[in-house]
Amino acid sequence: xxxxxxxxxxxxxxxxxxxxxxxxxxxxxxxxxxxxxxxxxxxxxxxxxxxxxxxxxxxxxxxxxxxxxxxxxxxxxxxxxxxxxxxxxxxxxxxxxxxxxxxxxxxxxxxxxxxxxxxxxxxxxxxxxxxxxxxxxxxxxxxxxxxxxxxxxxxxxxxxxxxxxxxxxxxxxxxxxxxxxxxxxxxxxxxxxxxxxxxxxxxxxxxxxxxxxxxxxxxxxxxxxxxxxxxxxxxxxxxxxxxxxxxxxxxxxxxxxxxxxxxxxxxxxxxxxxxxxxxxxxxxxxxxxxxxxxxxxxxxxxxxxxxxxxxxxxxxxxxxxxxxxxxxxxxxxxxxxxxxxxxxxxxxxxxxxxxxxxxxxxxxxxxxxxxxxxxxxxxxxxxxxxxxxxxxxxxxxxxxxxxxxxxxxxxxxxxxxxxxxxxxxxxxxxxxxxxxxxxxxxxxxxxxxxxxxxxxxxxxxxxxxxxxxxxxxxxxxxxxxxxxxxxxxxxxxxxxxxxxxxxxxxxxxxxxxxxxxxxxxxxxxxxxxxxxxxxxxxxxxxxxxxxxxxxxxxxxxxxxxxxxxxxxxxxxxxxxxxxxxxxxxxxxxxxxxxxxxxxxxxxxxxxxxxxxxxxxxxxxx
Length: 621
Fold this sequence. Notes:
alpha+beta, 22 helices, 49% helix, 18% strand
């Protein structure tokens, strides 16, 4: 097993992630693993020592944090590591009264070993030694992780269940999450022969009765005239798309105004579906959605309780720095509704941002720092301010919103966007701007006959008009390759062959398909046999309107909700000190950076010989 992966397995598999707006990760301190503090003290948290070795290990194990030790980012990462270890120490100390039995620890260790193929005792011991642990050490880690998990469970269980008012408020602002599936009332004919299916489709388009043809020909549901669902009150019961094979369902549910599909092949069978009525998705009534709503709201209330618990631990924490190399500044970066936002909270969200991690891999740390300070950190500060402001805003507006700060902020934004509507002009504008999304590329079924002689290829193309392509090409000395279903530009064909099928205007009719021109590919010459050729086409606005509408409505709700939330936050007159904090940090980091001694211009430079070697300077005597 890869050592880095093993470290993650052994040191992190039991880490507890508490989703409380931000993810707090709690893993036992190394000192707790060994039952005593080892190493050089860096700081104390309410009297508990955190060592330099612990801080350095935490930094090494995170690829983002270990990417640089210098400059503003180096200072940020040090601040983050210290804040994280402080939180972990506070939580670890807060669960010392939780009892965890030896059998519980044994069960969890057994589970970890089984999950990671380490059931062999030697393999397990070797794996632990590879990360500097013994079995006893690891069991102490497990014991503490289980204790944290149990305390969190206690906190969650103590949270009162959501009230009907809280459930109704959440439902009213999130009805799009509780939609019924689209359904259709319809009938189908299923046969095993494509030609027969095509003949039946012609009859249906000519006005034949669908139910009668289904009863006489379909291999499925013939006893009810092909009805997709049982007959109720004289009509087929509506069914969802999952009731049909994927290709068939896609074709049927595209008929929003009803009608007949083409013949659709799926699983060796051939389907024709008549859509009698299309039933669009709609919001479930509150009574029907209530159980799911309760699950979501109760989870939010529980997460909020955990968030409050963690913050209560921080409130009176006493931190003393023992090693000044690890002393950090964690100033107030913003204030809103009487609450202070610490700079480490901003760094935490920056470190956890995936785009930031990608940025570090692409540009030097100094350049990344400039981009982060100018773009990402200001955005993060505003998001945190909104979160801190949200409970006050919700209370002022008499909204029954519950959950973490960020969840309440989302609720306030949803309230501000509750009346958002989209017009046909909005939908048409989106369609015009994003027309490429609705293009279906050309497709075909392709076979290739390759010849080592151009004349043979030309002769074959001229002679083949009917019969079996594979047999004819083989008799003519060609090597045949079945390319199968091909979509223009999908990479299954070389550029030359792709162009010969989808761009050329000189395809020649032959048998049930067409032949391409002779195409030179390397030192050979190919002729392509093309069937089921479908040209590229763009779906009309009418065809995709229903698909576009929820997207455009979502964008409008997001915009209107954010505007409303921004306006509400502004009334609380928050202060944003980020620029001041960053300026002070830059000055402090610059002062701590060792200065490179300036070169004295009066120093004699050594003479250089013609071979490039230096000659020691001479002195006057």
